[in-house]
Amino acid sequence: MSKSEELFKKAQNLMPGGVNSPVRAFNAVNRHPFFVDRAQGAYLYDVDGNQYIDYVCSWGPGILGHAHPKVIEAVQKVCAKGLTFGAPTEKEVILAELIQKCVPSMEMMRLVSSGTEAVMSAVRVARGFTGREKIIKFVGCYHGHSDGLLMKAGSGLLTGSIPNSSGVPKDYAKYTLLANYNDEDSVKQLMDQYGEDVACIVVEPVAANMGVVPPKEGFLKFLREITKKYGSLLIFDEVITGFRLALGGAQEYYGVVPDLSTFGKIVGGGMPLAAYGGRKDIMSCVAPVGNVYQAGTLSGNPVAVTAGIETLKILIDNKEIYSELDKKSSKIEEAYKNIGLQTKRIGSLMSVFFTNKPVFNYNDVSTCDINKFAQYFNYMLENGIYVAPSQFESMFVSLAHCDKIIEKTVDVISNFR
Ligand code: HOZ
Q: For 195-220, what is the mean pLDDT?
């Protein structure tokens, strides 16, 4: 028995499914997960000594590759000064300034510890500011695991065929209205009926938790206009797209500015850190200035903030990174296309869909052949390449994926049948 198998056996008695986050259990690809020992650059190494080219990149944060020397050095140094103070530090101010430099709509922000917390808090702020209770989210979009955002969500819920999580009171769920991604009419209908009661529309500007589904031309602009018309707020969940599509995220890439945004993953440089923020008049609702409450012992944690600062500094100082990532990713996309698979890609964010139906929303995604996906996943892993163990997660390319690695990837994809 391999060490990963042994650990998984023990873990299953200690943690639900043997994991601390559902998709990691590999249930959808019919095998046990490998347990990671370490990672460097584009590679992951498991406890049995296997090496994998990693296209999961910790589900998004690893834009520079694993264990970038500058980030690691800065983190090691700051650890010696103490791990948490529960009091403000200069580094929080530095990170907030860097975020604002990249994303000008972040006029005022809060640093928190996870994407879930960021979106949950942004939605609360939207409700506090507007005095309204209903929100609109899109089927197949995932915004973390807070109660009000789990209805028909993507990511692990889609992977595990859980349309609506148990444990969410019906009386609470009724405030979440569901529209279809890329479908303006479905939004119009809800806004016609409930617009005056809608606090916000929350959207992943590029859906990336039902596989990668980019917005149709004009869709984000339409959301901007209809929210303005009804006095509702527009929230961009940029936990995945932030600092990945461009320094200024999807809002820079598509030129549509939301009222509030949420960031996670890259902004924390691999540490548990996220942020939410936006218009100053709206964020002034947050305590202690206003009455919308949100707090956290580890919010703005100095070690996490340091990883975020170093990562953003590297991205800011090397703007060509984004065109490089685009080039690398386009080679991989080409390889999928050459064997007749449908892909969707924006920069270094990509998905391959096992369906002939063109993919624009959850209904299209749900036609995918998940058995074929499992076969593909296992083929890739057996050839030393780790892609997300679910049809409904994204593929992430990092700077550490050098030409040689991309070539090997292209070669392996080309031989998949
Ligand atoms: N929900 C995350 C991906 N969209 C998975 C996180 C994890 O398992 O680490």
A: 98
Q: Whole-model pTM above 0.90?
A: yes
The label of the residue with tokens 């218009």 reads 279
| 161 C-beta neighbours (distance < 10 Å), count | 8
pLDDT score of 164 more than 90: no
CA dihedral 279, 281, 286, 290 (to 10 degrees): 180
Question: Looking at 52, 142, 336, 362, which residue is catalytic?
Answer: 142
Q: Which protein residue has the closest C-alpha to ligand 1 atom 8?
A: 21
Distance 285 CA to ligand 1 centre (A): 30
Separation of CA 392 and ligand 1 centre (Å): 11
**pLDDT > 90 fraction of the chain, expressed in percent and rounded:** 96
For residues 219-230, give the mean pLDDT: 98
